């Protein structure tokens, strides 16, 4: 059986949602980042990069959300991952996932993990501030990409789940998320998906941080 190593509210929730949406037979295994469980030798044997998600399969472990999501797409051909019936939409979905993982996610790392960029603690505030500034710009672009439906074509993909995760993180670092009403509306559509509801319940996240702070 597949095993998903994940942490509540982390980017692993994107793969978690895709597995739920696919109706996959899988076991979610909690790795609490806040308690440093990802740094323990048992987990480093699963992912030496000390990150979630990781997906254990019958043939070995896959790490990196984008690789996991494309594997789920090939294996289950369901919504919530990457389109497989339209090469262009599949590429556009991977394009967004790539930008999210390589750029937007890294701006959050600047805010939360400044130590990853330098040993010089005196410049942490500048790195964090730079991350916030970058997020303001990236979040405006995400808002511009939101319309009446989904981010890619007219279907629910992992790009929507990634955006959902970022919105919650934006609230967690006290960005003013009320400036992104179309994105907030996308989240409300996502919250109606049973797969998303099951993951939120399983990860015990609550729904308040998926809308702008009151
Ligand atoms: N490039 C990786 C990044 C994964 C990642 O950064 N995961 C975070 C949670 S969102 C993590 O495990 N962080 C642990 C840490 O920063 O120590 C991917 O896309 O899967």
Automatic annotation (TrEMBL):
InterPro entries: Glutathione-S-Trfase_C-like, Glutathione-S-Trfase_C_sf, Glutathione_S-Trfase, Glutathione_S-Trfase_N, GST_C, Thioredoxin-like_sf. Residues 86-209 form the GST C-terminal domain. Residues 1-80 form the GST N-terminal domain. Belongs to the GST superfamily. This is Glutathione S-transferase N-terminal domain-containing protein. The lineage of its organism: Bacteria, Pseudomonadati, Pseudomonadota, Alphaproteobacteria, Sphingomonadales.
């Amino acid at each position: 059986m597949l095993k998903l190593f994940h942490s509540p509210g982390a980017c692993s929730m994107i793969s978690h949602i895709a597995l739920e949406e696919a109706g996959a037979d899988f076991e979610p295994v909690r790795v609490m980042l806040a308690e440093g469980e990802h740094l323990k030798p048992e987990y480093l044997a699963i992912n030496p990069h000390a990150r979630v998600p990781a997906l254990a399969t019958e043939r070995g472990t896959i790490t990196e959300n984008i690789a996991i999501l494309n594997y789920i797409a090939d294996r289950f051909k369901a919504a919530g991952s990457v389109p497989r019936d339209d090469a262009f939409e599949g590429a556009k979905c991977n394009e967004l996932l790539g930008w999210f993982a390589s750029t937007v996610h890294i701006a959050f790392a600047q805010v939360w993990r400044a130590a990853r960029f330098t040993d010089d603690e005196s410049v942490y505030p500048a790195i964090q501030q730079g991350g916030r500034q970058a997020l303001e710009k990236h979040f405006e672009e995400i808002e511009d990409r939101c319309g009446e439906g989904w981010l890619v074509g007219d279907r629910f993909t992992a790009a929507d789940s990634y955006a959902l995760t970022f919105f919650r993180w934006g609230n967690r670092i006290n960005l003013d998320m009320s400036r992104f009403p179309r994105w907030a509306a996308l989240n409300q559509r996502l919250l109606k998906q049973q797969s998303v509801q099951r993951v939120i319940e399983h990860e015990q996240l609550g729904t308040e941080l998926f809308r702008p702070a009151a």
